[in-house]
From TrEMBL:
Protein name: Pimeloyl-ACP methyl ester carboxylesterase
Highest taxon of the lineage: Bacteria
AB hydrolase-1 domain location: 9-206
Length: 228
């Protein structure tokens, strides 16, 4: 069996392979595409099981999830014991939700916020994601414009109601020090980019790529990858 690292990448809510276009990973790379929820009531574990169908059960690999995709990375890794989850600008559990999101979770007020709000207020979206260049802003606007509002409503509800997963947690975490959407926790971050926002996946593609390549190389042969 080849020792080449295998990466499965899960973008953030409503995003796609465009956010990974600057990444340079030394190995086989697969971007997992979002699936339409089977219903408004489909839970994250069930959804993750459908997403995990693209990951061979016996394949050692890295499942890298960005933002909302990080929750799915943890869920997929739970179903694939030879996979390791890596989180980028994401949550390791519901305890890391900021107080405003915990309030929205407790009261259900998030249901009253139209998912298309950021589409109508692109400058607010740019501020929230911490974009710094025209290119980043243009890409963010394209991604938001292409996001299905029904999927966004389902995903936001799932994020806020997510109970987390048991086990040792992610193999590694990367986060921006100026993330306004999901602020970095006080501990547990392996690679903190002090001046980066939530758009870390795009704005700091080169250092993220280096970190992931070094992480995979340090793990040794892919056959040895196991959750511990």
């Amino acid at each position: 069996m080849s020792e080449e690292p295998v990466f499965y990448l899960i973008p953030g809510l409503g995003a796609d392979e465009r956010v990974f276009q600057r990444w340079q990973l030394a190995g086989a790379v697969h971007v997992l595409q979002w699936l339409p929820p089977q219903s408004a009531a489909e839970g994250l574990p069930h959804y993750a099981a459908r997403l995990a169908a693209a990951v061979p059960p016996g394949q050692p690999c890295w499942v890298v999830g960005v933002s909302f995709g990080g929750l799915l990375a943890l869920e997929v890794a739970r179903l694939r014991p030879r996979a390791r989850a890596v989180l980028v600008s994401s949550l390791a559990g519901p305890h890391e939700l900021r107080w405003l999101l915990r309030l929205a979770r407790a009261t259900g007020l998030y249901r009253l916020v139209p998912p298309a709000l950021l589409q109508q207020m692109p400058r607010l979206a740019g501020w929230a994601f911490g974009v710094k260049t025209r290119g980043e802003y243009a890409l963010l606007r394209q991604i938001i414009a292409d996001t299905d509002p029904a999927f966004a409503r389902w995903a936001i509800g799932q994020l806020l109601r997510w109970p987390g997963v048991p086990g040792p947690g992610p193999a590694a975490r990367l986060h921006g020090g100026r993330d306004r959407l999901l602020p970095a926790p006080n501990a547990g971050i392996d690679y903190l980019v002090a001046d980066a926002g939530h758009f870390l996946v795009v704005s700091h593609a080169a250092p993220i790529s280096r970190f992931l390549n070094q992480l995979a190389a340090a793990a040794g042969p892919q056959d040895d990858l196991r959750l511990t």
